[in-house]
Amino acid sequence: MSWIDDTQLTIADSIHDYSTSLDHFVGKKEDEKPINNRSYLRLRLKSRYSHREYLETDGSVYLKLDLPHTKKNWKIIFESDPDDFDRLEDKERGISANSNSSLSGAIGGVRLQGRKLGEWKTNFDLGLKLKFPIDPFTRIEVYRTDQLSYEWTSRIKQEVFYYKSKGPGTLTSFNFYHAITQEPSTILKLSLNAQYLDTDNNWEVVQQAEIFDRIDQDNLLQYSIGVSADSRPNYSVTNSWVSIGWKHRLYKKWLYFTATPELDFQEDFNYKINPGIMFELEFYFSSNDRGNDRLKHVIPSP
Q: Which distant-in-sequence residues (6+ apart) come within 8 Å of 2 by Cβ?
């Protein structure tokens, strides 16, 4: 397996060296000490098949170049398959996009991350869709985390995004977390999300309950049950589902495999049962991020 490790190290080190050089050129002062650079590249390959639909395949690339020496902690981002205009259900379930409103083409830009407004934290993105004609975009995200009680934690998030070609959209999320075990290796997450896309003139609402069960250091089970609804043309439930995802560390801490059997009950098929399964491979390339545990789910801290 040495050639696999060599390839991973070569790509990771190239990303690190390039981002470090750019960071030092843009933001490092002569008397400053080097700061840990957390740039990384993530590749995802997905295949999803269901009894009443076709086989869908999807691949995506996400690159983040960390610039820790810049005064306001800017990042450079690249996404080959942005999900801003995907259906909310697809976003929440992490499945391949199947919305007619989905964006086509990669985007690149800069991110100002982690600025505070009182108890709220913010992320601000600004960039272009890398496809002619030029399509500028911006995204603003504000969120906060609160300790509701000894057992429950909440996170509220509001996101607003705008693309010149498609107009505005908003996404509002309410998430509630509870540790089922003391470690906590088993976490319950309850969520309520609402998305409005100006292109569809439609509100989509998704409610979901998930349990993340860490079996051991190499395996994670994720149980999910949820329902989605649209406001147009008339308010109706568009889908309900149950799924069980198994995520496995295939190799070291940079190659992961996920298999997710699922049962859907979609309006498009008169709510008849629609069994399916999704497979996913994830590759991570990072020099200073190798200690991260990609299987670890934690309750966010206030």
A: none
d(CA 40, CA 212): 25
- pTM value? 0.89
Domain that holds residue 136: 2-285
| Rounded Cα gap, residues 21 and 36, in angstroms | 13
Q: Who's near 14: CB < 8 A, 6+ residues apart?
A: none
pLDDT tens digits for range 234-253: 899 999 999 999 999 998 88
Under DSSP, the state recorded for 250 is E
- Bridge partners of 122, per DSSP, are 115, 142
pLDDT digits (tens, 9 = 90+) for 28-84: 776 677 777 888 999 999 999 999 988 889 899 999 998 887 766 789 999 988 899
Contact criterion met (CB below 8 Å) for 249 and 13 = no
* Number of domains forming the structure of the chain: 1
- Indicate which CATH number applies to the domain containing 86: 2.40.160.40
Asked whether residue 208 is domain-assigned, the answer is yes
d(CA 169, CA 139): 10
What is the distance between the alpha carbons of residues 229 and 238, in angstroms, rounded to a whole number? 5
Nearest alpha-carbon partner for 209 in 194, 188, 230: 188
CB 264 within 8 A of CB 274: yes
